[in-house]
Amino acid sequence: MEQELVGIRKLGPVVAIDGPAGAGKSTLARELARALGLPYLNTGLMYRAVAAGALADGVPPGDGERLAAVARRLRFSIAEGPGAELSIDQEPPGPELVGEAVEGVVSEVAAHSEVRAVLRQAQRELGSRGCVMEGRDIGTVVFPDADVKMFLSARPEVRARRRERERGGGAEVGEAVVRRDQLDAKTNPLEPAPDAHLLDTSQLGPEDALSAALSLVRAVLGDQVNR
Length: 227
What we know:
Blueprint: E1 14-18, H1 25-36, E2 40-42, H2 43-57, H3 64-73, E3 76-78, E4 86-88, H4 100-110, H5 113-127, E5 131-135, H6 138-142, E6 148-153, H7 156-167, H8 171-187, E7 197-200, H9 206-221
Parallel strand pairs: 1-5, 1-6, 2-5, 6-7
Antiparallel strand pairs: 3-4
Helix pairs in contact: 1-9, 2-3, 2-4, 3-5, 7-8
């Protein structure tokens, strides 16, 4: 069992959004951050950046120690302010992070506890002043003390169709969602935090999902966020 992070105090309001690929986390988290006046952090891009760096350096996806060194070398940052997003080595995330090469190895890269330890520490530091953060273990490990925790889900076929639209591919993209679920489940079983609010987005469009999330967050945080 991996240890929860300690030693970095949460100084601002944190909304944690967890869930599987294709559940709508990125769309919801980005718009929710803008509406609340908070930065937005996509933690999946951090793992993808490590995978891309490993491919560029010829580091095998099975070498956890060298992958952790790649993770430590990357400089992640995020500005303050509504909707501010992740920068990697002072640049916005590039399109290669969602390309086929990275997609093919990112689950194996993320499986290493050494990599996860480096990135979880960075995520805690980046989000400690307040943010909307999305990923797979935000409410359980990175910010178990998050003010609001949401767990998004959707039926597998719905998630597959969404990924096909996002990535501009055919059925093979949808099949990749199923394979990703299987690989990720071996590393980090996807379970909501006991105090997470569950949101099934199978039949919700982006606006409806945002409305539901905003109502929940504002009921909890009140004047701590923009109204």
